[in-house]
Design a protein that fits this description.
Layout: H1 3-7, H2 28-35, H3 42-52, E1 56-60, E2 63-68, H4 71-79, E3 83-85, H5 89-95, H6 105-116, H7 121-124, H8 128-140, E4 146-148, H9 149-166, H10 173-188, H11 200-223, H12 232-240, H13 246-251, H14 255-286, H15 288-303, H16 313-316, H17 320-333, E5 338-343, E6 347-349, E7 352-354, E8 359-363, H18 364-368, H19 407-424, E9 425-429, E10 449-454
Parallel strand pairs: 2-8
Antiparallel strand pairs: 1-2, 3-5, 4-10, 5-8, 6-7, 9-10
Helix pairs in contact: 5-11, 8-9, 8-19, 9-14, 10-11, 14-17, 14-19, 15-17
Bound molecules: protoporphyrin IX containing FE (HEM).
Protein backbone atom coordinates (compact mmCIF):
# COMPACT_ATOMS: atom_id res chain seq x y z
CA UNK A 1 0.00 0.00 0.00
CA UNK A 2 2.66 2.51 1.02
CA UNK A 3 5.79 0.97 -0.44
CA UNK A 4 4.73 0.08 -3.97
CA UNK A 5 3.95 3.62 -5.14
CA UNK A 6 7.17 4.90 -3.58
CA UNK A 7 9.08 2.68 -5.99
CA UNK A 8 7.86 4.70 -8.94
CA UNK A 9 9.91 7.86 -9.30
CA UNK A 10 8.25 11.22 -8.62
CA UNK A 11 10.88 12.82 -10.88
CA UNK A 12 8.30 13.64 -13.54
CA UNK A 13 6.53 15.81 -10.96
CA UNK A 14 9.60 17.98 -10.36
CA UNK A 15 8.06 21.02 -12.04
CA UNK A 16 4.96 20.93 -9.84
CA UNK A 17 5.42 22.90 -6.59
CA UNK A 18 4.84 21.13 -3.27
CA UNK A 19 6.49 18.65 -0.92
CA UNK A 20 6.29 14.87 -0.94
CA UNK A 21 7.01 14.72 2.80
CA UNK A 22 8.71 11.85 4.61
CA UNK A 23 9.94 8.69 2.91
CA UNK A 24 7.25 6.00 2.68
CA UNK A 25 4.48 7.87 4.55
CA UNK A 26 4.81 11.15 2.69
CA UNK A 27 2.43 13.73 4.17
CA UNK A 28 -0.19 11.15 5.18
CA UNK A 29 0.02 11.87 8.92
CA UNK A 30 -0.73 15.58 8.68
CA UNK A 31 -3.38 14.82 6.04
CA UNK A 32 -5.10 12.35 8.39
CA UNK A 33 -4.94 14.58 11.44
CA UNK A 34 -6.43 17.54 9.53
CA UNK A 35 -9.00 15.22 7.99
CA UNK A 36 -10.82 14.75 11.30
CA UNK A 37 -10.48 18.38 12.46
CA UNK A 38 -13.60 20.59 12.20
CA UNK A 39 -12.51 22.31 8.97
CA UNK A 40 -11.48 18.91 7.54
CA UNK A 41 -8.70 18.82 4.97
CA UNK A 42 -9.29 22.53 4.38
CA UNK A 43 -6.40 23.38 6.74
CA UNK A 44 -4.06 20.90 5.06
CA UNK A 45 -4.87 22.36 1.70
CA UNK A 46 -5.00 26.03 2.67
CA UNK A 47 -1.51 26.11 4.18
CA UNK A 48 -0.10 24.46 1.06
CA UNK A 49 -2.06 26.67 -1.31
CA UNK A 50 -0.67 29.74 0.50
CA UNK A 51 2.85 28.35 0.06
CA UNK A 52 2.68 26.85 -3.42
CA UNK A 53 -0.41 28.15 -5.23
CA UNK A 54 -3.58 26.56 -6.59
CA UNK A 55 -1.84 23.44 -7.93
CA UNK A 56 0.54 21.48 -5.68
CA UNK A 57 1.82 17.95 -5.28
CA UNK A 58 1.86 15.75 -2.19
CA UNK A 59 2.20 12.09 -1.23
CA UNK A 60 -0.82 11.01 0.80
CA UNK A 61 -2.42 7.64 1.55
CA UNK A 62 -0.04 5.75 -0.68
CA UNK A 63 -0.39 7.95 -3.74
CA UNK A 64 1.56 10.74 -5.38
CA UNK A 65 -1.26 13.21 -5.79
CA UNK A 66 -1.72 16.57 -7.45
CA UNK A 67 -4.21 18.75 -5.57
CA UNK A 68 -5.97 21.46 -7.51
CA UNK A 69 -8.83 23.83 -6.99
CA UNK A 70 -10.90 26.56 -8.66
CA UNK A 71 -13.72 26.60 -11.19
CA UNK A 72 -11.46 26.03 -14.19
CA UNK A 73 -9.83 22.98 -12.61
CA UNK A 74 -13.32 21.72 -11.73
CA UNK A 75 -14.47 22.12 -15.33
CA UNK A 76 -11.40 20.27 -16.65
CA UNK A 77 -11.54 17.42 -14.13
CA UNK A 78 -15.30 16.92 -14.09
CA UNK A 79 -16.17 17.34 -17.76
CA UNK A 80 -12.90 16.65 -19.61
CA UNK A 81 -12.19 13.45 -21.51
CA UNK A 82 -8.65 13.14 -20.14
CA UNK A 83 -9.57 11.72 -16.72
CA UNK A 84 -11.27 8.71 -15.12
CA UNK A 85 -12.56 8.19 -11.58
CA UNK A 86 -9.79 7.12 -9.21
CA UNK A 87 -11.42 4.84 -6.70
CA UNK A 88 -9.27 4.00 -3.65
CA UNK A 89 -8.07 0.40 -3.29
CA UNK A 90 -10.53 -0.77 -0.60
CA UNK A 91 -13.44 0.62 -2.62
CA UNK A 92 -12.23 -1.17 -5.79
CA UNK A 93 -12.02 -4.48 -3.98
CA UNK A 94 -15.33 -4.29 -2.16
CA UNK A 95 -17.48 -2.86 -4.95
CA UNK A 96 -16.15 -5.14 -7.66
CA UNK A 97 -14.76 -4.50 -11.14
CA UNK A 98 -18.09 -3.90 -12.88
CA UNK A 99 -19.28 -1.17 -10.50
CA UNK A 100 -20.33 2.07 -12.16
CA UNK A 101 -17.50 3.70 -10.22
CA UNK A 102 -14.93 1.55 -12.02
CA UNK A 103 -16.22 1.87 -15.56
CA UNK A 104 -15.53 4.56 -18.12
CA UNK A 105 -16.66 5.66 -21.57
CA UNK A 106 -19.51 3.75 -23.23
CA UNK A 107 -19.86 1.16 -20.44
CA UNK A 108 -20.21 3.95 -17.89
CA UNK A 109 -22.87 5.65 -20.04
CA UNK A 110 -24.77 2.37 -20.35
CA UNK A 111 -24.84 1.83 -16.58
CA UNK A 112 -25.90 5.45 -16.00
CA UNK A 113 -28.82 4.98 -18.40
CA UNK A 114 -29.82 1.90 -16.49
CA UNK A 115 -30.16 3.70 -13.16
CA UNK A 116 -31.32 6.98 -14.70
CA UNK A 117 -34.96 6.01 -15.15
CA UNK A 118 -35.68 4.45 -11.71
CA UNK A 119 -33.95 7.37 -9.98
CA UNK A 120 -35.69 10.05 -12.07
CA UNK A 121 -38.45 12.18 -10.53
CA UNK A 122 -41.12 10.13 -12.33
CA UNK A 123 -39.46 6.85 -11.38
CA UNK A 124 -39.40 7.83 -7.69
CA UNK A 125 -43.02 8.82 -7.46
CA UNK A 126 -44.19 5.31 -6.61
CA UNK A 127 -41.97 5.27 -3.49
CA UNK A 128 -43.24 8.57 -2.10
CA UNK A 129 -45.95 7.08 0.14
CA UNK A 130 -43.46 4.65 1.68
CA UNK A 131 -40.91 7.41 2.35
CA UNK A 132 -43.57 9.65 3.91
CA UNK A 133 -44.92 6.86 6.10
CA UNK A 134 -41.42 5.85 7.20
CA UNK A 135 -40.48 9.45 8.11
CA UNK A 136 -43.64 9.78 10.23
CA UNK A 137 -42.95 6.45 11.96
CA UNK A 138 -39.30 7.27 12.59
CA UNK A 139 -40.18 10.61 14.15
CA UNK A 140 -43.10 9.26 16.17
CA UNK A 141 -40.81 8.10 18.95
CA UNK A 142 -38.63 11.23 19.01
CA UNK A 143 -40.90 13.22 21.33
CA UNK A 144 -39.26 13.99 24.67
CA UNK A 145 -36.23 11.82 23.90
CA UNK A 146 -32.50 12.26 23.60
CA UNK A 147 -31.72 11.40 20.00
CA UNK A 148 -28.52 10.82 18.05
CA UNK A 149 -29.61 12.47 14.82
CA UNK A 150 -27.00 10.69 12.72
CA UNK A 151 -28.13 7.25 13.91
CA UNK A 152 -31.77 8.04 13.23
CA UNK A 153 -30.99 9.50 9.81
CA UNK A 154 -28.89 6.43 8.99
CA UNK A 155 -31.70 4.01 9.86
CA UNK A 156 -34.19 6.05 7.86
CA UNK A 157 -32.08 6.36 4.70
CA UNK A 158 -31.06 2.68 4.77
CA UNK A 159 -34.67 1.55 5.02
CA UNK A 160 -35.61 3.84 2.14
CA UNK A 161 -32.91 2.54 -0.19
CA UNK A 162 -33.53 -1.09 0.84
CA UNK A 163 -37.18 -0.62 -0.04
CA UNK A 164 -36.53 1.10 -3.37
CA UNK A 165 -34.02 -1.50 -4.50
CA UNK A 166 -35.60 -4.75 -3.30
CA UNK A 167 -38.81 -3.96 -1.38
CA UNK A 168 -37.26 -4.87 1.96
CA UNK A 169 -39.73 -4.59 4.82
CA UNK A 170 -38.65 -1.81 7.24
CA UNK A 171 -38.52 -4.25 10.15
CA UNK A 172 -37.79 -7.94 10.55
CA UNK A 173 -35.00 -10.45 10.16
CA UNK A 174 -34.12 -9.64 6.56
CA UNK A 175 -33.84 -5.90 7.31
CA UNK A 176 -31.58 -6.68 10.28
CA UNK A 177 -29.32 -8.92 8.17
CA UNK A 178 -29.17 -6.27 5.47
CA UNK A 179 -28.38 -3.53 7.98
CA UNK A 180 -25.65 -5.39 9.85
CA UNK A 181 -23.90 -6.51 6.64
CA UNK A 182 -24.13 -3.02 5.21
CA UNK A 183 -22.58 -1.43 8.32
CA UNK A 184 -19.58 -3.77 8.12
CA UNK A 185 -19.14 -3.09 4.39
CA UNK A 186 -19.39 0.63 4.97
CA UNK A 187 -16.74 0.75 7.68
CA UNK A 188 -14.32 -1.35 5.61
CA UNK A 189 -13.80 1.50 3.11
CA UNK A 190 -11.77 3.57 5.52
CA UNK A 191 -9.84 0.52 6.79
CA UNK A 192 -6.22 -0.37 6.06
CA UNK A 193 -6.20 -2.48 2.90
CA UNK A 194 -4.98 -5.70 4.54
CA UNK A 195 -6.98 -8.71 3.40
CA UNK A 196 -6.05 -10.70 6.50
CA UNK A 197 -8.66 -12.45 8.69
CA UNK A 198 -9.61 -10.26 11.63
CA UNK A 199 -9.09 -6.92 9.86
CA UNK A 200 -11.94 -4.51 9.11
CA UNK A 201 -11.19 -4.79 5.39
CA UNK A 202 -11.42 -8.60 5.45
CA UNK A 203 -14.68 -8.40 7.42
CA UNK A 204 -15.99 -5.97 4.79
CA UNK A 205 -15.28 -8.42 1.96
CA UNK A 206 -17.02 -11.20 3.90
CA UNK A 207 -20.05 -9.00 4.59
CA UNK A 208 -20.14 -8.08 0.87
CA UNK A 209 -20.25 -11.80 0.03
CA UNK A 210 -23.10 -12.35 2.49
CA UNK A 211 -24.97 -9.41 0.96
CA UNK A 212 -24.48 -10.93 -2.52
CA UNK A 213 -25.82 -14.29 -1.26
CA UNK A 214 -28.88 -12.48 0.03
CA UNK A 215 -29.34 -10.80 -3.36
CA UNK A 216 -28.82 -14.11 -5.20
CA UNK A 217 -31.55 -15.61 -3.09
CA UNK A 218 -33.99 -12.78 -3.84
CA UNK A 219 -33.14 -12.84 -7.57
CA UNK A 220 -33.69 -16.61 -7.62
CA UNK A 221 -37.08 -16.31 -5.91
CA UNK A 222 -38.15 -13.61 -8.33
CA UNK A 223 -37.06 -15.61 -11.40
CA UNK A 224 -38.95 -18.66 -10.11
CA UNK A 225 -42.05 -16.47 -9.89
CA UNK A 226 -42.26 -17.06 -6.12
CA UNK A 227 -42.08 -13.38 -5.36
CA UNK A 228 -43.00 -10.22 -7.26
CA UNK A 229 -42.40 -6.59 -6.33
CA UNK A 230 -42.46 -3.52 -8.54
CA UNK A 231 -39.00 -2.23 -7.57
CA UNK A 232 -35.53 -1.44 -8.92
CA UNK A 233 -34.34 -5.05 -8.76
CA UNK A 234 -37.42 -6.29 -10.61
CA UNK A 235 -36.79 -3.80 -13.44
CA UNK A 236 -33.22 -5.10 -13.72
CA UNK A 237 -34.32 -8.75 -13.68
CA UNK A 238 -36.92 -8.14 -16.36
CA UNK A 239 -34.48 -6.40 -18.68
CA UNK A 240 -31.47 -8.58 -18.00
CA UNK A 241 -32.54 -12.18 -17.67
CA UNK A 242 -30.97 -14.14 -20.52
CA UNK A 243 -33.12 -15.81 -23.15
CA UNK A 244 -32.70 -17.72 -26.43
CA UNK A 245 -31.45 -14.76 -28.50
CA UNK A 246 -27.65 -14.94 -28.21
CA UNK A 247 -27.04 -11.48 -29.63
CA UNK A 248 -29.51 -9.88 -27.21
CA UNK A 249 -27.91 -11.84 -24.36
CA UNK A 250 -24.55 -10.17 -24.99
CA UNK A 251 -26.14 -6.81 -24.23
CA UNK A 252 -27.54 -7.98 -20.93
CA UNK A 253 -25.97 -7.46 -17.54
CA UNK A 254 -24.74 -10.53 -15.71
CA UNK A 255 -26.00 -11.15 -12.16
CA UNK A 256 -22.54 -10.10 -10.93
CA UNK A 257 -22.86 -6.75 -12.73
CA UNK A 258 -26.31 -6.25 -11.23
CA UNK A 259 -25.05 -6.99 -7.73
CA UNK A 260 -21.94 -4.79 -8.05
CA UNK A 261 -24.12 -1.88 -9.11
CA UNK A 262 -26.80 -2.40 -6.51
CA UNK A 263 -24.08 -2.33 -3.87
CA UNK A 264 -22.63 0.79 -5.50
CA UNK A 265 -25.97 2.58 -5.18
CA UNK A 266 -26.28 1.53 -1.55
CA UNK A 267 -22.79 2.69 -0.70
CA UNK A 268 -22.91 5.94 -2.68
CA UNK A 269 -26.40 6.85 -1.51
CA UNK A 270 -26.50 5.94 2.16
CA UNK A 271 -23.73 7.78 4.04
CA UNK A 272 -24.08 10.87 1.87
CA UNK A 273 -27.82 11.32 2.52
CA UNK A 274 -27.39 10.44 6.21
CA UNK A 275 -24.65 13.07 6.53
CA UNK A 276 -26.69 15.68 4.66
CA UNK A 277 -29.72 15.20 6.94
CA UNK A 278 -27.57 15.38 10.07
CA UNK A 279 -25.65 18.50 9.01
CA UNK A 280 -28.88 20.14 7.94
CA UNK A 281 -30.43 19.67 11.39
CA UNK A 282 -27.22 20.90 13.01
CA UNK A 283 -27.09 24.04 10.88
CA UNK A 284 -30.79 24.70 11.55
CA UNK A 285 -30.14 24.30 15.29
CA UNK A 286 -27.38 26.91 15.04
CA UNK A 287 -29.32 29.34 12.84
CA UNK A 288 -32.74 30.09 14.37
CA UNK A 289 -33.61 32.68 11.73
CA UNK A 290 -33.22 30.09 8.94
CA UNK A 291 -35.21 27.54 10.94
CA UNK A 292 -38.03 30.06 11.38
CA UNK A 293 -38.19 30.79 7.64
CA UNK A 294 -38.16 27.10 6.87
CA UNK A 295 -40.98 26.49 9.36
CA UNK A 296 -43.07 29.16 7.66
CA UNK A 297 -42.71 27.38 4.32
CA UNK A 298 -43.82 24.06 5.83
CA UNK A 299 -46.55 25.67 7.92
CA UNK A 300 -48.10 27.05 4.73
CA UNK A 301 -48.10 23.57 3.22
CA UNK A 302 -49.81 22.22 6.36
CA UNK A 303 -52.41 24.98 6.23
CA UNK A 304 -53.19 24.10 2.62
CA UNK A 305 -54.32 20.66 3.84
CA UNK A 306 -51.67 18.91 1.76
CA UNK A 307 -49.08 18.64 4.52
CA UNK A 308 -48.46 16.76 7.74
CA UNK A 309 -49.64 13.15 7.57
CA UNK A 310 -51.36 14.02 4.29
CA UNK A 311 -48.22 15.38 2.67
CA UNK A 312 -48.81 15.07 -1.05
CA UNK A 313 -46.40 14.43 -3.90
CA UNK A 314 -47.29 17.78 -5.54
CA UNK A 315 -46.11 19.65 -2.41
CA UNK A 316 -42.62 18.18 -2.72
CA UNK A 317 -42.20 20.46 -5.72
CA UNK A 318 -43.43 23.40 -3.69
CA UNK A 319 -40.53 23.78 -1.24
CA UNK A 320 -38.23 26.39 -2.81
CA UNK A 321 -36.67 27.57 0.46
CA UNK A 322 -36.09 23.98 1.64
CA UNK A 323 -34.11 23.30 -1.56
CA UNK A 324 -31.93 26.33 -0.84
CA UNK A 325 -31.37 25.09 2.72
CA UNK A 326 -30.26 21.73 1.28
CA UNK A 327 -27.85 23.41 -1.14
CA UNK A 328 -26.40 25.65 1.56
CA UNK A 329 -25.97 22.59 3.81
CA UNK A 330 -24.03 20.79 1.08
CA UNK A 331 -21.88 23.87 0.49
CA UNK A 332 -21.08 24.52 4.17
CA UNK A 333 -20.54 20.87 5.09
CA UNK A 334 -18.95 19.79 1.78
CA UNK A 335 -19.79 16.18 2.52
CA UNK A 336 -17.42 14.89 -0.17
CA UNK A 337 -14.44 17.19 0.38
CA UNK A 338 -12.53 16.18 -2.72
CA UNK A 339 -13.19 14.33 -5.96
CA UNK A 340 -10.48 11.88 -7.06
CA UNK A 341 -9.53 11.41 -10.67
CA UNK A 342 -6.73 9.76 -12.67
CA UNK A 343 -5.23 11.31 -15.82
CA UNK A 344 -5.88 9.05 -18.82
CA UNK A 345 -3.95 11.38 -21.16
CA UNK A 346 -1.27 14.04 -20.81
CA UNK A 347 -2.80 17.50 -20.46
CA UNK A 348 -2.16 20.93 -18.97
CA UNK A 349 -3.86 22.66 -16.09
CA UNK A 350 -3.12 26.19 -14.84
CA UNK A 351 0.12 26.07 -16.86
CA UNK A 352 1.32 22.76 -15.35
CA UNK A 353 1.88 19.60 -17.37
CA UNK A 354 -0.10 16.65 -16.03
CA UNK A 355 1.00 13.20 -17.17
CA UNK A 356 -1.09 10.14 -17.93
CA UNK A 357 -1.51 7.93 -14.84
CA UNK A 358 -1.19 10.68 -12.20
CA UNK A 359 -3.69 10.89 -9.35
CA UNK A 360 -5.53 14.21 -9.21
CA UNK A 361 -7.66 15.52 -6.35
CA UNK A 362 -10.11 18.35 -6.92
CA UNK A 363 -10.29 20.21 -3.62
CA UNK A 364 -13.97 21.12 -3.33
CA UNK A 365 -13.77 22.64 0.17
CA UNK A 366 -11.73 25.60 -1.09
CA UNK A 367 -14.18 26.18 -3.93
CA UNK A 368 -17.15 26.13 -1.53
CA UNK A 369 -15.35 28.55 0.79
CA UNK A 370 -14.09 30.98 -1.85
CA UNK A 371 -15.46 34.46 -0.97
CA UNK A 372 -15.39 35.36 -4.67
CA UNK A 373 -18.17 32.83 -5.30
CA UNK A 374 -19.75 32.79 -1.82
CA UNK A 375 -19.40 36.11 0.07
CA UNK A 376 -18.83 35.56 3.81
CA UNK A 377 -18.52 31.81 3.24
CA UNK A 378 -18.54 31.02 6.98
CA UNK A 379 -22.21 32.13 7.23
CA UNK A 380 -25.02 29.64 6.78
CA UNK A 381 -27.16 31.66 4.42
CA UNK A 382 -29.54 29.73 2.11
CA UNK A 383 -30.61 32.99 0.42
CA UNK A 384 -27.27 33.09 -1.41
CA UNK A 385 -28.93 30.50 -3.67
CA UNK A 386 -31.60 33.09 -4.67
CA UNK A 387 -29.30 33.94 -7.59
CA UNK A 388 -27.97 31.38 -10.05
CA UNK A 389 -24.48 30.20 -9.13
CA UNK A 390 -21.43 30.70 -11.30
CA UNK A 391 -20.74 27.48 -13.25
CA UNK A 392 -18.64 24.95 -11.30
CA UNK A 393 -18.76 26.96 -8.06
CA UNK A 394 -21.35 24.78 -6.30
CA UNK A 395 -20.44 21.11 -6.44
CA UNK A 396 -22.64 19.58 -3.72
CA UNK A 397 -23.80 16.91 -6.17
CA UNK A 398 -20.80 17.19 -8.50
CA UNK A 399 -21.05 18.10 -12.17
CA UNK A 400 -20.51 16.57 -15.62
CA UNK A 401 -20.97 12.92 -16.62
CA UNK A 402 -20.37 11.68 -13.08
CA UNK A 403 -22.77 14.10 -11.43
CA UNK A 404 -24.75 12.36 -8.69
CA UNK A 405 -27.52 10.19 -10.23
CA UNK A 406 -29.20 10.00 -6.78
CA UNK A 407 -29.86 13.75 -6.55
CA UNK A 408 -33.66 13.45 -6.85
CA UNK A 409 -33.87 10.66 -4.31
CA UNK A 410 -31.64 12.52 -1.83
CA UNK A 411 -33.72 15.69 -2.14
CA UNK A 412 -36.97 13.75 -1.84
CA UNK A 413 -35.86 11.99 1.35
CA UNK A 414 -34.61 15.21 2.93
CA UNK A 415 -37.67 17.29 1.97
CA UNK A 416 -40.07 14.72 3.43
CA UNK A 417 -38.08 14.19 6.62
CA UNK A 418 -37.56 17.90 7.23
CA UNK A 419 -41.23 18.67 6.57
CA UNK A 420 -42.19 16.49 9.53
CA UNK A 421 -39.28 17.49 11.79
CA UNK A 422 -39.79 21.26 11.60
CA UNK A 423 -43.57 20.93 11.83
CA UNK A 424 -43.50 18.90 15.04
CA UNK A 425 -40.37 19.57 17.04
CA UNK A 426 -37.82 21.89 18.52
CA UNK A 427 -34.46 20.46 19.51
CA UNK A 428 -31.52 21.45 21.70
CA UNK A 429 -28.00 20.14 21.12
CA UNK A 430 -26.65 18.23 24.13
CA UNK A 431 -23.00 19.06 23.53
CA UNK A 432 -20.90 21.50 21.58
CA UNK A 433 -18.41 19.60 19.49
CA UNK A 434 -17.58 20.43 15.91
CA UNK A 435 -15.20 17.50 15.23
CA UNK A 436 -15.87 15.34 12.21
CA UNK A 437 -15.49 11.58 11.74
CA UNK A 438 -12.32 10.51 9.90
CA UNK A 439 -14.36 8.89 7.12
CA UNK A 440 -14.58 9.65 3.42
CA UNK A 441 -18.00 11.22 3.86
CA UNK A 442 -17.81 14.09 6.35
CA UNK A 443 -20.16 13.61 9.33
CA UNK A 444 -20.31 15.11 12.85
CA UNK A 445 -18.18 12.87 15.09
CA UNK A 446 -20.60 13.03 18.04
CA UNK A 447 -23.54 12.07 15.75
CA UNK A 448 -25.26 15.33 16.81
CA UNK A 449 -27.01 14.39 20.08
CA UNK A 450 -30.11 16.50 20.76
CA UNK A 451 -33.01 16.70 23.19
CA UNK A 452 -36.27 16.74 21.24
CA UNK A 453 -39.43 18.46 22.49
CA UNK A 454 -42.81 18.96 20.89
CA UNK A 455 -43.41 22.44 19.40
C1 LIG B 1 -27.25 14.33 -0.14
C2 LIG B 1 -26.91 13.17 -0.64
C3 LIG B 1 -25.88 12.98 -1.71
C4 LIG B 1 -24.77 13.74 -1.99
C5 LIG B 1 -24.29 14.99 -1.27
C6 LIG B 1 -24.11 13.11 -3.12
C7 LIG B 1 -22.99 13.62 -3.73
C8 LIG B 1 -22.38 13.07 -4.85
C9 LIG B 1 -21.29 13.66 -5.56
C10 LIG B 1 -20.61 14.96 -5.19
C11 LIG B 1 -20.97 12.81 -6.57
C12 LIG B 1 -19.88 13.03 -7.63
C13 LIG B 1 -18.53 12.56 -7.15
C14 LIG B 1 -17.43 12.74 -8.16
O1 LIG B 1 -17.62 13.40 -9.20
O2 LIG B 1 -16.34 12.20 -7.92
C15 LIG B 1 -21.86 11.68 -6.49
C16 LIG B 1 -21.82 10.58 -7.33
C17 LIG B 1 -22.63 9.48 -7.19
N1 LIG B 1 -23.74 9.38 -6.36
FE1 LIG B 1 -24.36 10.72 -5.00
N2 LIG B 1 -24.81 11.98 -3.47
C18 LIG B 1 -25.90 11.88 -2.65
C19 LIG B 1 -26.88 10.90 -2.68
C20 LIG B 1 -26.89 9.82 -3.55
C21 LIG B 1 -27.91 8.80 -3.61
C22 LIG B 1 -29.20 8.79 -2.77
C23 LIG B 1 -27.49 7.87 -4.54
C24 LIG B 1 -28.14 6.60 -5.02
C25 LIG B 1 -29.19 6.05 -4.59
C26 LIG B 1 -26.21 8.32 -5.05
C27 LIG B 1 -25.46 7.64 -5.98
C28 LIG B 1 -24.31 8.14 -6.57
C29 LIG B 1 -23.53 7.40 -7.54
C30 LIG B 1 -23.81 5.98 -8.04
C31 LIG B 1 -22.48 8.24 -7.94
C32 LIG B 1 -21.38 7.92 -8.95
C33 LIG B 1 -21.80 8.41 -10.32
C34 LIG B 1 -20.83 8.09 -11.43
O3 LIG B 1 -19.67 7.82 -11.15
O4 LIG B 1 -21.27 8.16 -12.58
N3 LIG B 1 -25.88 9.50 -4.44
N4 LIG B 1 -22.74 11.86 -5.45
Amino acid sequence: FFVKPMLSSPKAMEDIPGSLGWPVIGESLSFLSEFSSPPGIYNFIKTRQQKYGKVFKSFVLGRFTIFMTGREAARTLLTGKDVSLNLFYTGQQVLGPTSLLQTNGEEHKRLRRLIGEPLSIDGLRKYFEFINMLAIQTLDNWTGRKVLVLEEASTFTLKVIGHIIMSLEPTGEEQEKFRSNFKVISSSFAALPLKVPGTAFHRGIQARDRMYEMLDDIIHRRREGKDFHDDFLESLIMKHTKGADQEANNEKLTDKQMKDNILTLLVAGHDTTTAALTWLMKFLGENPYVLERLREEHQQIRESGKGGENLSWSEINNMPYTLKVISETLRRATILPWFSRKATQDFEIDGYKIEKGWSLNLDVVSIHNNPEYFPQPELFDPSRFDEPMKPFSFLGFGNGPRMCPGINLAKLEICVFIHHVVGKFKWTPLEKDDSVQPTLVRMPKNKYPVLVEPL
